[in-house]
Task: structure prediction
Amino acid sequence: MALGHDHHWRAGYYGSRFAVKGWLVDDKQREIDGLRAELAEVRARLAAVEASDAAERRHFEEALETSERSYREIFNAAMTGICVHEIPSGRVLDANQAILDMFGCSRDEVFQMAFWRRVSAGAPHTPAEAIRVIRKAASEGQQVVQWPVRRKNGERFWVEVVVKRAVIGGVARVLVLMNDITDRRRAEEALKVSEQNYREIFNASMNSIAIVDVDTGRFLDVNQAMLDMHGVSRDEALRLTIRDISIDQSPATEQRTIELLHKAVNEGPQKFEWHCKRGDGQTFWVEVAVQRVVLDGVPRALALATDITDRKRARQRLLEEQDILRNLLESQERERRLIAYEIHDGVAQQLAAAAMYCSAFERLRDTDPEEATKLHEAGAMMLQEALAETRRLIGGLRPAVLDESGLVAAVENLVSDVGAREGIEVEFLHDVRFERLNPISENSLFRIVQESLTNAARHSGTRKIRVRLVQEVDRLTLEIQDWGSGFDPADVSQERFGLKGIRERAGVLGGRATIESSPGAGTRIRVELPLGETKGRPV
Result:
């Protein structure tokens, strides 16, 4: 029994173990199958990924090929010449068609290390300098230069070169971009020559030339003549406006000048006279011609000015001389009328009376000798008086002593007569070296002394008059002074003949007369005449 029981126990024990083991084997198998399935799925996924990567790789390769093709097309289609250079050797790695056309070289010739030596136009633009610029661009940044170079056939031309660092395919390179600027350089040189010629003509002009902004009145450009005319530097002139140099007086006021500048730009050339001032404040007159010019697309006023100060003075002087001559003619006419009145009232009456006495004498000579004798004597007396009056009139017009002995003797005689006639002291001082003046000068100076003495004796109440005649190096000075009542010259009418006549006679001789007087302080008349030679005599 015991043995049978043990057998049973053993059979049950081993049967259970095999059952467990079988379960374990089945479970492991399932695990292996699961792993195999997962591995198959992973392999499938890997296959899908590999297929996808291959597709993407083909896509990227195609895109890269397209990009490379597009780059190459753009690279070769560019109008700008482009070279890719190796760093630091400077060797050409690539070049576009524009470079080949520009230099007339093949691609192989460009790739040769001797390329820069072949195209160099000589010092200082040498191949070594080209390599230096390439290296400088690689280390410091973009460089821009203009160089003369040569084509393969030896023709020289100019290029503008931009050299810059670039990363191509993950490698640092240098790009050299070239443009043919030969035509531009020629145009710039021509413009430079034209500008130089313009500037030389601009500054060589005798007329003042200025370019003006019509809106602000500011000077944009001026030539040397304008600087000299206004006495300013160029920098000072370019800070000036019309207002700064204008004398705001009619007819060319500041506002009127601006209006004329606008009119010249908008309607056509204008011409006018303008009163302006220099840098030191001195005023002068210019004649201005203005016309429109367009500079940098903007309308401006081109003003040419000529200094006409001397011309205006000469014109004014001419007008004054014409006025003097007209007044002298009127004066002469008045003197003729006065002489006519004096002859009519004096000499003519005396001669008429003498004629009547002579006629009566003839009638009574035989019948009444005694009465006839009285008439004869009366007639003779009238003739003597007429002769004396005639001499007085002649002496008043031009004393005989003036013709015979000259100005000094004539004034001495006049001073003596006036002193004796008026009962006053008249002193004559003279220091001259000439013997005679020309007749016009002598007569004018004599008349000035005569008029001055007459005025002083009649109107001033003075008891003393002094006449001084002094010859200096280049002028003759005549001075008549009294110590009478005096007057205010500002209150004397310009039409008063005596003083006006003195001024006019001095003006005719090229001199001037000044009259100084004040109430209670007497009067001094000073005449200055230039000395010259006329027919061997001082003027």
In short: The chain has a mean pLDDT of 80. The chain has five domains: 22-74, 78-186, 205-307, 308-397, 399-538. The first strand starts at residue 81 and ends at 85. The radius of gyration is 60 Å.
